[in-house]
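Re-run with default settings, no changes from the original entry. Doing this only to confirm the output is reproducible before filing.
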Amino acid sequence: MDQAGCGLGVAARAWAARPPGATCTLPGPQRRPPSWRPPRSVSPSVHRRTERPTRAPGPPDDVAAAPPARAVAASRQEPRPLRSTRTTRAARTTRAARLVLVAPAALAVAALAACAGGTASADGTAPAAGATASAAGFTPVTLDNCGTEVTVDSPPERVVAIKSTSIEMLLALGLGDRLVGTAFADGPVPDEYADAYDAVAVLSDKVPGQEALLEVQPDFVYAGWESNFSDDGAGERSALQGLGIGTYVSPAACKEDGYMPDPLTFDGLFDEIREVASVFGVEDRAEDLIADQQAALDGVEPPAEETTALWYSSGTDTPYVGAGIGAPQMMMDAAGLTNIFADVHDTWTSAGWEQVVAADPDVIVLVDATWNTADSKIAMLEGNPATSQLTAVKEHRYLTVPFPAAEAGVRNADAVVDLSRQLADLAG
């Protein structure tokens, strides 16, 4: 049997029909050497002269056809859904899969053993430290997650987290011991999570393949985007269900009508923290985390006068910007900024530079990514004859947000506090 025989979609059939002595090689997770440390993100600062499913089209055409650096930036933007292909909530509920989680998944372990030509115990490896104690008082939960019904009978013990938002959510809830793999991180984690993050295998810098996912024998996969679950990615949710592996998508990233937050709010984000905590039986940790974040938000002082802002994520010929109902709008509202694209009913949108020039924002919020830095955006803005005449560009009124904090997650409250601090610095 060749390596393709170990794919997630055929794992069960491969186990039943394997020829005698069949073997294949599964790629192992990429573990960091003990001495490796991720680069520390520079604390967002004010830039002065001295010194960012139905799968739909995501970034604008000019980004897709652009040089590699811009193409990489485009791949980090979650695709927007085609409105005409959305189904009703009732129809989705009818077809929703009931995911009964087993810990760990015996069928997935058996499929892996078949591929390797060896044997494996039904329960795989030992449960994470503290998981048994947590399970003792656990109350099963059933969730409607982006149209898929998820039933959790006991706390997941072997979790793979895809995207920074899901990775950092689990670390913020003190659940690093449940992680057996991470993937598709958008940047370095905050310093307080670095040791826990470094202790976990990195399965892929992108969305992990199905074989790499199965090799670590997860009983639960937590993804930041719906599109992370696909045939050419981590596997379809229904296929993972068939292997006894539970799945969960950040509710803030749900794209279909009835599930997409409209608009996203901090109250909704706090509900997600509570929901994730309920899956793992750590509800008290959620309340502590929410209280800390609410206190931070309560301490933010808005600017004395109305301050208009452009949230600039990526793109050169056609900028990709924060629109009126997603995480950028939520954070700008909390910081007291007026989004010049607040009237666009979407999370992010492709805009025209002529619209930006006409609005002439007071400040520009730059999403700072390793593949598309704030400094590179500043150089473009100051080198373009049209954008160089913007008030914010001439006066170097730039704010920055790290890419991992630009999407809905546990870093948003701190990002608001930092934006407010940067605004105060600009005011002198």
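Residues 283-298 form the longest helix (16 residues). The radius of gyration is 22 Å.
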